[in-house]
Design goal:
9 helices; 2 domains; six-stranded mixed sheet; single chain; three-stranded antiparallel sheet; Rossmann fold; 36% helix; alpha/beta
């Protein structure tokens, strides 16, 4: 399958049924353009993470077709999954260590990735020495170290406190504005999705499909003035209403 013109990711009629008979996705259609920041928003268990794994090539669809830039993808999971026996620099360098990516100057690439997430001074620290937010920064740096075209993020900030989550939202937007990579961001937070995105894909409960697409036509950079504005609150209400209808309209 070839993505539609301008799209880096395309899913057409994608379904996923697991061996136990659970249908996670059914008739999922979406297109994501190069350089977009798009959240998949929906309740827990609606198939958001399953869709992300199909895009990444980590899982096969049971039906339909999926297209994405194979081998040029960074993935950030909900848990940072850092190796406890090596430093932040060692963890960020893991794609090169495993031979999954070639780079003639891996040390320079690791230094750039750590700098982008404000961890340069902690390059020789171990995961146990850092906070949850800093460990997640390291996971993001590891996903960015090969400078992939597509960054997939599976609820990366869900386990963090609100203050840390807000700070990492700002940091992520700063990195995205610098690199302009395509980001697909799974979340169940209306507030986070509105703050981060250019448009939001609201999904139905399982089996998941896109129920609504909502544009957030607010310029970047975004800051606390937007987060506390009436405009932001209005978009949050609009998205909350769409999510409520998606859930209420499910079979």
């Amino acid at each position: 399958m070839t993505p539609r013109d301008g799209a880096i990711v395309s899913l057409r009629g994608v379904g996923k049924t697991f061996e136990n008979g659970v249908a996670a996705l059914d008739g999922l259609n979406l297109d994501i353009a190069e350089g977009e920041f798009v959240p998949l928003l929906g309740p827990s268990g609606c198939g958001k993470s399953t869709a992300l794994r199909i895009i990444a090539g980590l899982s096969e669809a049971s039906a339909g077709a999926a297209a994405a830039p194979a081998g040029n993808i960074g993935f950030v999971f909900q848990d940072p999954t850092l190796l406890p026996w090596t430093t932040m620099a060692g963890n960020v360098a893991l794609p090169f260590t495993l031979g999954a990516a070639g780079n003639s100057e891996p040390h320079a690439a690791v230094a750039r990735a750590l700098a982008r997430v404000a961890l340069s001074e902690f390059a020789e620290a171990y995961p146990r020495e850092l906070s949850g937010g800093m460990r997640m920064r390291a996971a993001i740096a590891r996903a960015l170290v090969t400078e992939p075209r597509l960054l997939l993020m599976d609820e990366p900030f869900a386990a963090l406190d609100e203050i840390t989550r807000f700070r990492l939202n700002n940091d992520l937007l700063a990195v995205w504005q610098e690199l302009r990579r395509t980001v697909v961001f799974v979340t169940h937070s209306v507030f986070e999705s509105v703050y981060l995105s250019q448009r939001i894909l609201v999904m139905t409960p399982r089996p998941g499909r896109v129920f609504a697409e909502i544009a957030i036509p607010v310029s970047y950079p975004r800051d606390e003035r937007f987060r506390t504005s009436a405009e932001y609150a209005g978009y949050c209400r609009q998205v909350s209403d769409a999510l409520s209808h998606a859930m209420g309209g499910a079979a």
